[in-house]
Amino acid sequence: MKGSCHYRMPNGTLLAISVAEKGDLQEILALQHLAYQSEAALLNDYTIQPLQQTLADIESEFATSLFLKAADEQETIVGSVRGRMVDGSLCIGKLIVHPSVQGRGIGTALLDEIERIHDCNRCQLFTSSKSSRNIRLYERAGYSQYKEEKISDSLQFVYLQKIRRPRS
After folding, report:
1. Overall pTM surpassing 0.90 (yes/no)
2. Residues β-bridged to residue 128
């Protein structure tokens, strides 16, 4: 991906979606900790992995994954997503958007962009079965559920996938 793509939000604000750099990781991690507060509240569990992840952890993940960021006109990161190829499938993780701008299409734009960059037949991701808002977003983007996994008495993951034709 060269440069960045631009996305105009419904209120007219222009966002730039681009590949994140190592220097962005601290800001992305802070946003992740903020964005996952609602998920932790939904699950009544503030020990979920995204809230426990450290800068060293995210730096390690950065070495094997592509991180995208969405930045506003003041260059503040308001969203991020990461993905990596595993056995020919794009595994998408931690699609996050600042709570103050959720519901404005930023998550969809990030998801579209990470899919566009990776030319593969299958994209996959997972979320909590209690995260109905996330599931609706993914289903609107063309994902369908293919598996559920009980993690604990209070947590069940829903796995979703999108099968697509690679570009020729």
Report:
1. yes
2. 157
Which token pair is 128? Answer: 């909590």
Decide if 107 is inside a domain: yes
- Please report whether residue 162 resides in a domain: no
The CA-atom distances, in angstroms, between 1 and each of 24, 92, 117, 151 are: 17, 17, 7, 36
C-alpha torsion angle, residues 27, 35, 91, 121 (rounded to 10): -110
Residue 148 lies in a domain: no
> Residue 165 falls within a domain, yes or no?
no
- Tally of domains within the chain: 1
Tell me the per-residue pLDDT of 68-121, one tens digit each, with 9 for 90 and over: 999 999 999 999 999 999 999 999 999 999 999 999 999 999 999 999 999 899
Three-point CA angle 140, 77, 88, nearest 5°: 50
Compute the distance between CA of residue 151 and CA of residue 162 in angstroms, rounded to an integer.
Answer: 23
CA 156 vs. chain centroid, Å, equals 19
The DSSP H or E segment spanning 156 is strand 155-163
Task: Note the maximum CA span of the chain.
Answer: 46
